[in-house]
Design goal:
By secondary structure, the chain is an alpha/beta fold. The protein is built from ten helices and seven strands.
Length: 249
């Protein structure tokens, strides 16, 4: 698990320009949406489901009076407890969102970023999040898209003989994603609606071109960014890496 923490912390400072851009773009999009959610739903209580290395917890603690970080992994909870030492309004809690013991209708905002792809019953998890929100509360959600080339490459990268080459190219932590439940945008919208949410805003980001990303550096990144601008909102938007939602309970 310490390897996973190391990986998550490395993503935003990666020596690879594409890898760094993909994750920083996602972080910036989530942070922008969290600020909007706090301004809309109020700055009372927020919950982050699956905080991982805790990249969003300091901002949540700035925006909200009371912040709960729930996870099933002790390493992530231990990391959150360290952050709580400097953020007294942060409370880490061991909790499984698929069988949550947190009080119903007790949060103004729930953040769930890059989590439901690890949960087989994502519909059940979304229903649980809806139940934790006060009426009118907001969910900030992100998850990878099923047909993203990056997700396909992530599966290929761990085939026998290939992973050694990939690690040699990146020269930083490379671990299997553990994604077992990748959704298309229509599937994600259907599950959100089935859980009782109304989608207020949505979007996508992230172009990954195999080999271009690994071997052409900043030149390749500029090409990927140019392609992304032309794909967003178009018929090929399902190939972008991450999908984002701001939804009301």
């Amino acid at each position: 698990m310490s390897e996973l923490l190391s990986l998550q912390e490395t993503l935003y400072t990666s020596r690879n320009p594409t890898r760094r851009w993909l994750h920083r773009t996602r972080r910036a999009r989530i942070e922008e949406t969290l600020r909007l959610a706090a301004a809309t739903a109020g700055s009372g209580r927020a919950l982050e489901v699956g905080p991982g290395s805790g990249v969003y917890l300091p901002l949540l603690c700035q925006l909200f009076d009371d912040v709960v970080a729930s996870d099933v992994e002790e390493a992530f909870l231990a990391n959150a407890r360290e952050l709580a030492g400097t953020h007294p309004n942060l409370r880490p809690v061991a909790d499984d969102i698929t069988a949550s013991g947190l009080p119903a209708q007790s949060f103004d905002v729930v953040l769930c970023s890059e989590v439901i792809e690890h949960i087989e019953d994502s519909e059940g998890a979304l229903r649980a999040m809806h139940g934790l929100l006060r009426p009118g509360g907001l969910l900030v959600l992100s998850t990878p898209q099923r047909h993203s080339p990056l997700e396909l490459a992530g599966r290929i990268a761990f085939l026998p003989g290939i992973v050694t080459f990939v690690r040699a190219v990146y020269r930083e932590p490379i671990l299997a994603t553990g994604h077992i439940n990748l959704l298309t945008a229509p599937e994600a919208r259907r599950q959100l609606a089935g859980a009782g949410f109304d989608v207020l805003e949505s979007g996508q980001s992230g172009v990954y071109l195999p080999l271009v990303a690994e071997f052409t550096g900043r030149i390749g990144l500029k090409l990927e960014q140019w392609i992304e601008r032309r794909m967003i909102g178009g018929r090929l938007s399902g190939l972008l890496w991450v999908q984002y939602y701001l939804a009301r309970a």
